[in-house]
Prior knowledge:
Layout: E1 19-21, H1 28-43, H2 45-70, H3 76-118, H4 124-166, H5 172-213, E2 217-219
Antiparallel strand pairs: 1-2
Amino acid sequence: MSIFRITHILVSVLAVGFLLTGCVSKEKSAERLYQVLEKVVKAEKEFEEQQEPLVALEKEEKEIYNQIMALGMKQHEEIVKLSDEALLIIDKRRDHLQNEIVSINASKTEFKKAEEIKNEIKDSAQKRKADDLFEIMRNRYKVHNQLAKEYSSALDSDKDLYLMLKNESISYDKLEAHVTRLNTTYQKVYDANQEFNELTAQYNEKKLEFYKEAGLNLEK
């Protein structure tokens, strides 16, 4: 059981081939904020690197689950073997999730520095853009926290499922009830992931709007 996560990352202005030129910002605090916000992106590099292996592991586990479902309960030895393989994959998925959380926490630390600089901005138009940007990011961190909790819960339930499958005397009704609960948990993961992706896209858009409002020349 799994859900294929496609998590959009923060877009670095530098990473997509732009350079800050001219330093024509209306105030120096905007230039400082630019530098810190780009460090926030770098702090999430580890987060980015977890996504591809996570998706690969989820697909691998899903294939194993489908193999188990295609087997009859009389083929118990094969089910045990496949379940053990799935349990190892779950441990790997949990490691990637932990790395992701560490990266997001590093991003939060950098972002706090950006908030301190934001409070120094005097220009009202810039301040409004910055306030919108920071509100989105705060919500993004909040949603990721929920996403990580739901995903961890799903991993726990996945583990319980394969342990149940290893039990030759487990009843079909218990298995069915557990899978139903597990599907509900993964729906929560999916919903949180969708919201996180949307907030990330909004943040990237608002960040560029702020740079433009601040008069920061971004040239390819």
